[in-house]
Structures are given as structure tokens and as C-alpha cells.
């Protein structure tokens, strides 16, 4: 089944230009590994950027200090490079690369931590400190507690599906949420929904009980 919900042009352009942090880049690269059309859009953006660079007049003189700055950009030592998209993902793996390497294996090797009744998560470590990255596993047919957002949230479906309002998100689909969205996604029937979620602020839950448990759950 083809991907229906794709990464926005604005976010994809940030990824193409290298200005997107590692955590957000991991979400975009995961979607790209599962969506041929988004990979084509990325390629078009990179080709356009290359054409624009070719029209820039070269600098005639470059000082030693400038060369040191260029070398530092080409060979960073303190910050990890943004993940690269994989153009030929494995058909058998649930987690495409580079996400699978970040998680230490595919879903059958993940040591899930309980998040609620039947729900689980698995935190993923990144080096940029910009966001919280985790895999989520929601039981088939069960809703996520209603919530809004204190910042940006990116979600990529890896297995199963979820419904958000009238929209259905399946494997490879990408959802972008911000402070303006209040919703209650519901996992599809028949199979647990496994997603990659990246957030830069705690969720704002409507339920007082969930809010009470929020510091313990870390969501």
C-alpha cells in the first residue's frame, strides 16, 4: 500500500539543506526510506540546490582561518551527522535504516518499557539534545489519551495503522503536529500500531490522571 501522508516541503527542504537536527532528521529519513515519492522530491531539491551553487562566483582568496572553518564543517568531531535516507529498505524488516541501527535491531529485539495499559515505548538516544525520540507500540483498536502539544511532534508509522479524525495513517505515513492540534489517535484493528515519535516538549493531556502520571512515564 502506497504512502498517502508525506513530509511537508518546508521540513524536507530543511533536511535537504542540512539545517535539521539529528532527532528530527531521524524521523524524516525513516519516512524517506519508506516513501519513494518523498525520495524523488528530496532528489529534486538537492539537484536544484546544486544548480544554484554552480552559479555562485568562486571566492578568489581564502585565508587559512577560512580553510580551518571549512574543514571543521566537513569533519565535525562533537556533533553527529544527520541520518542519511536509505533508498532500498529491506522488505522483511519493520524498522528501516538508519532507524534500525539507532534502535539496536529490529522490533523483535527491542526491550519495550510499559507506558500504560497495553502500551509500550522504547526511548532512542540522539546526540543533539533537541528532542525526545522514541518508538511507541499501541494495542490494536485502543486510543491514545486526548492531548495537544507544547511544541512540534513528528510521527512515522512503521507497522499497523492509526486513525486521527477522518485520516488513516499506515506504514510510511508521516504526521506533523504542533501547538494548534488537539487530537486522540486510535490504533487500527487487527495489529498493534508501532510508530516513531519525535517531540520537543511534553504533551498536554486532557485527562488529569494522565497528567498526574506524566512525570513518571516521561511523556
- Work out the strand percent: 15-25%
Largest sheet: 6 strands, antiparallel
Assembly type of the chains comes to single chain
Portion of residues within helices? 25-40%
The secondary-structure class comes to: alpha+beta
Q: Which segments are poorly predicted (pLDDT under 50) over 5 or more consecutive residues?
A: 73-79
Order of helices and strands: HHHHHEEEEEEEEEEEH
Tell me the span between the first and last alpha carbons.
Answer: 31 Å
Tell the overall outline. globular
Mean pLDDT: 81
User: Roughly how many Å is the radius of gyration?
Assistant: 19 Å
Counted beta strands: 11
- What is the count of DSSP helices, taking H or I runs of 4+ residues? 6
Strand order of the largest sheet: 1-2-3-10-5-8
Give a short summary of the structure.
The protein has 219 residues and is an alpha+beta fold. The chain has six helices and eleven strands.
What does it look like?
The chain has 219 residues and is α+β, with helices and mostly antiparallel strands. It is built from six helices and eleven strands. The strands form three sheets. A six-stranded antiparallel β-sheet has the order 1-2-3-10-5-8, covered by helices on one side. Strand 6 and strand 7 (167-169) form a beta hairpin. Helix 1 packs across helix 3 (36-54) and helix 2 (22-34) packs across helix 3 (36-54). It is globular and about 60 Å long.
Amino acid at each position: 500500500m502506497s504512502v498517502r501522508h508525506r513530509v511537508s516541503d518546508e521540513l524536507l527542504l530543511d533536511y535537504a539543506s542540512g539545517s535539521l537536527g539529528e532527532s528530527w532528521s531521524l524521523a524524516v529519513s525513516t519516512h524517506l526510506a519508506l516513501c519513494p515519492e518523498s525520495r524523488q522530491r528530496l532528489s529534486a531539491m538537492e539537484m536544484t540546490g546544486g544548480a544554484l551553487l554552480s552559479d555562485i562566483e568562486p571566492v578568489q582568496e581564502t585565508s587559512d582561518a577560512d580553510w580551518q572553518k571549512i574543514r571543521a564543517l566537513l569533519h565535525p568531531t562533537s556533533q553527529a551527522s544527520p541520518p542519511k535516507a536509505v533508498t532500498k529498505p529491506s522488505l522483511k524488516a519493520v524498522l528501516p535504516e538508519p532507524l534500525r541501527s539507532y534502535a539496536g535491531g529490529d522490533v523483535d529485539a527491542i526491550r519495550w518499557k510499559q507506558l500504560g495499559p497495553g502500551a509500550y515505548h522504547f526511548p532512542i538516544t540522539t546526540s543533539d539534545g533537541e528532542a525526545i525520540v522514541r518508538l511507541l507500540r499501541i494495542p490494536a483498536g485502543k486510543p491514545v489519551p486526548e492531548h495537544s502539544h507544547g511544541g512540534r511532534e513528528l510521527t512515522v508509522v512503521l507497522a499497523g495503522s492509526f486513525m486521527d479524525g477522518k485520516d488513516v495513517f499506515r506504514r510510511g505515513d508521516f504526521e506533523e503536529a504542533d501547538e494548534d492540534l488537539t487530537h486522540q489517535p486510535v490504533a487500527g484493528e487487527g495489529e498493534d500500531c508501532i510508530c516513531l515519535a519525535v517531540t520537543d516538549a511534553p504533551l498536554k493531556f486532557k485527562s488529569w490522571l494522565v497528567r498526574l502520571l506524566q512525570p513518571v512515564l516521561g511523556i
